[in-house]
Amino acid sequence: MFLEIKEVIIGYTNPLVSEIDSSLELGEVCLLMGNNGIGKTTLIKSILGQNKLLKGEISINGKSLQKLNSNEIASQIAIVFSKAEIPDNYTVTDLISLGKYIHYPYYFKLNKTDKKEIAEIINKLNLSEYQYKKLSELSDGNLQKAFIGRSLAQNSPFIILDEPTTHLDEENKLMILSLLRNLAKSENKLILFSSHDWRLAKEFSDKIWWIKDKKLISGISEEVILSNPELIAPKILQFNEAFHAPQIDAPKLEKEMMFSYLQKNFSQDLRKIKLIFKNDFWELNSEDFYDNCHNLSEIKQSLQTLIKTSNSN
User: Fold this and answer.
1) Confidence check: pLDDT of 118 > 90
2) Which of 88, 115, 150, 166 has a CA 20 to 30 Å removed from the CA of 223?
């Protein structure tokens, strides 16, 4: 295994995550997820050697992380942060070229082989038409691709990305996630990335690392989800304490959306009413009322009629 974590405890004065035992191989994509402040960034920094382990050992390509210096770690791991600063007046080519300088002093000039490789990376990322554009003129999606290009120029087998799809629209999220998976498979890279958009990101990952209750749950993505159904089961959140819900017979997602809609629009007691989702219609039933509704607006109108009739009686 390229990355091995054995009996590791991470944290500062007190442990944040304990008993971490996991491994990842080249060619795999791993999604790191968990709530804010739970230890995701600390785990990333620990893998980078920036945080001292409280216990255990991390190995990179068969070598103990504790025995590697910063240059050796950089040769093995490239990092892309979501909040990276944009250098003034830098173009796409300038940024991607920076990845080469882990191999040279800052005053060296890149040779022909380096420049050819940078051109290939730009082409691979479909950034050729933007290669001389200033970074400040790029869309969020293309800017993120440029930062990924810098990590590729490092020629490190392992790439870590901290929230690479933050602030991106849906189209660009899919583009970046597809790009990461393609890079892992075509370039035999190990890719570890964290994401709040895990419901989308899980489709592109081979493995999941989920930090929960100060433990790291890890495994094949689908197996982790099957063992932890709360990851995909919608959570019905009640914020209107005066709301008394009707009986809702519907698939989980439709039930969650119906509950959400009704509690925002009604404070009356609806417990004697039953809503059934059937063949893309909603059946609304009570003791002396029935209606067949196509959408939420029709349900709202029917309920208002029912409540008005009940009050008049």
Assistant:
1) yes
2) 166
* Total tally of structural domains belonging to the chain: 2
Per the CB < 8 A criterion, the answer to whether 77 and 156 are in contact is: yes
- Domain end point (choices 230, 263, 286): 230
What is the average pLDDT across 3-28? 96
Six-digit token pair at 242? 């005066």
Phi-psi region of 292 (alpha: psi -120 to 50; beta: other; left: phi over 0): beta
Determine the pLDDT at residue 70: 87
Q: What is the pLDDT of residues 229-239, one digit of tens each?
A: 878 766 677 78
Regarding whether 299 and 173 lie in a shared domain, the answer is: no
Identify whether residues 61 and 104 lie together within a single domain.
Answer: yes
Q: Rounded CA gap, 6 and 20, in Å?
A: 6
Q: Which residues contact 250 (CB under 8 A, 6 or more apart)?
A: 258, 275, 276, 277
pLDDT at 24 over 90: yes
Q: Whole-model pTM?
A: 0.78
- We report the CATH number of the domain holding residue 125 as 3.40.50.300
Q: Evaluate the CA torsion angle 7, 203, 169, 138 in order and state its sign.
A: positive
Q: 179: which residues sit within 8 A by CB, 6+ positions away?
A: 125, 145, 148
Instruction: Return the closest-CA partner of residue 282 out of 293, 271, 297, 270.
Output: 293
What mean pLDDT value characterizes the chain? 90
> Do 183 and 211 lie in a common domain?
yes
Question: Does 199 share its domain with 95?
Answer: yes
